[in-house]
Automatic annotation (TrEMBL):
It comes from the Bacteria. This is Cysteine desulfurase/selenocysteine lyase. Residues 40-397 form the Aminotransferase class V domain. It comes from Micromonospora sagamiensis. GO terms for molecular function: cysteine desulfurase activity; lyase activity. Pfam families: Aminotran_5. InterPro entries: Aminotrans_V_dom, Aminotrans_V_PyrdxlP_BS, PyrdxlP-dep_Trfase, PyrdxlP-dep_Trfase_major, PyrdxlP-dep_Trfase_small. The keyword DNA damage does not apply. Keywords: Lyase, Pyridoxal phosphate.
């Protein structure tokens, strides 16, 4: 009998085996997935919510619902405290090194957070000839606000140039090509932590080393917070934005974290109105859930599961995975995707393939992905995984695609 194969410690199959019991316990905490025959594979669009978050929301709405900062009675005071606690918990989650100087601002989502940086803070600092580095192949939410800042500056007679971030063929930032594009007129560099199409960590720690200590860096962390450990201390960015609904909280609430280190202190403009109190309750509960569940384990699971998916897709003749082609197989030694895998089928449109997969109980994103003007022009299918997704779901998706490929290549006789 042949000796059993011993897999390296970091091999995806070994990671999946080691975390199998943990993952079963995680999945059991999501009521929407209990007893369903469908596989939810669209977490990059919005995440499902664990029971702990649902319980926190129900307790608040049925036990102490009130507006914040507008009353002296117990429910109002408690709600004000909950908002403060939410900001504190978010700061803990992203490893805020100096909470006394920085700020966690609750906004509507990632897009609003980035627009506030552009229009509430940056635009008044811009002078004629300044430059903003824009990641034009990333999500539109991290492109359009900087265009709006340029246009707002132009209306007051200030000319600002947008410099397109260069990319490597893998989809990663091309830091070597970026170096000559950054100079003394660079005022802000906008970057993304995990790419919403290619699924890779964009290695933004390299950007700080390149631009030096004076340039402001704004980070879109919509696909990283809650998916992997995020440390603003290590990344040394000035602004960070993410959406609560992608981090297991309710829709309609996002976060803008501002360091207040480079340039004037960030402050919201205008009257803020009533805060999204129940959203803040849900986000604080989600942060607590991440702490108990362990974000590091979430990252290990989704990376390993994504590697299993890319390995299977690489064996299908008629499927092309977008992004780095050296990271597809299980034995790859290069950087892997963080649970986000996007692919094209040359014979079937993304929309049609999305309908086929939906008929098999597989819920994926199957169209354009709100990518910027320098991004992919073809519609594609995106599979996005989280801690509640299983090996069986990935294998089922691969089986459907394999049978589909076989049906396309089998000759028919009449």
């Amino acid at each position: 009998m042949a000796a059993p194969v011993t897999l390296p410690a970091g091999h995806p199959d070994r990671v999946l085996a080691e975390l199998a019991d943990w993952q079963r316990g995680v999945r059991a905490q999501f009521p929407i997935l209990t007893g369903t025959g469908e596989a939810y594979l669209d977490s990059a669009a919005t995440s499902q919510k664990p029971q702990a978050v649902l319980d926190a929301v129900q307790h608040y709405l049925t036990g102490e619902n009130a507006n914040a900062g507008r009353g002296t009675y117990r429910w109002a005071n408690r709600t004000t405290t909950l908002l403060h606690d939410c900001r504190t918990r978010v700061g803990d989650l992203i490893d805020d090194p100096d909470p006394e100087r920085s700020g966690v601002h609750l906004v509507g989502g990632t897009t609003e957070a980035l627009r506030r940086v552009a229009l509430d803070w940056l635009v008044d600092l811009l002078t004629d000839g300044d430059e903003i580095v824009v990641p034009a192949a990333d999500h539109l939410a991290n492109v359009v606000p900087w265009q709006e800042a340029r246009d707002a500056a132009a209306r007051r007679g200030v000319t600002v140039r947008l410099v397109e971030m260069p990319y490597e063929p893998s989809g990663d930032y091309d830091v070597a090509a970026l170096a000559p594009l950054v100079g003394e007129r660079t005022r802000l560099v906008a970057v993304t932590h995990v790419h919403h199409v290619y699924g890779v960590d964009m290695n933004v720690h390299r950007i700080r080393r390149l631009v030096g200590d004076d340039v402001v860096i704004c980070l879109d962390a919509a696909q990283s917070v809650g998916h992997l450990p995020v440390s603003v201390t290590d990344l040394d960015v000035d602004f960070l934005a993410f959406s609560g609904h992608k981090a297991m909280a309710l829709p309609g609430l996002g976060v803008l974290w501002a360091r207040n280190r480079r340039g004037p202190r960030y402050e919201h403009r205008g009257w803020q109105g009533s805060p999204h109190t129940v959203g803040a309750v849900s986000l604080a509960a989600a942060v607590d859930w991440f702490e108990v569940t362990d974000v590091e384990r979430i990252a290990r699971w989704t990376v390993a599961l994504g590697a299993r998916l890319t390995d299977g897709l690489s064996r299908l003749r008629d499927v092309r995975v977008l992004g780095c082609q050296d990271s597809l197989t299980l034995d790859s030694a290069v950087q892997r995707r963080h649970g986000l895998v996007t692919f094209l089928h040359p014979a079937i449109s993304a929309a049609d393939l999305g309908f086929v997969l939906a008929d098999h109980g597989l819920m994926v994103r199957a169209n354009a992905h709100c990518q910027g003007p320098a991004g992919e022009r073809e519609n594609s299918v995106r599979v996005s995984l989280h801690a509640y997704n299983t090996v069986e779901e990935v294998d089922r998706l691969l089986d459907v695609l394999a049978r589909l490929d076989a049906s396309l290549t089998t000759p028919s006789y009449h």
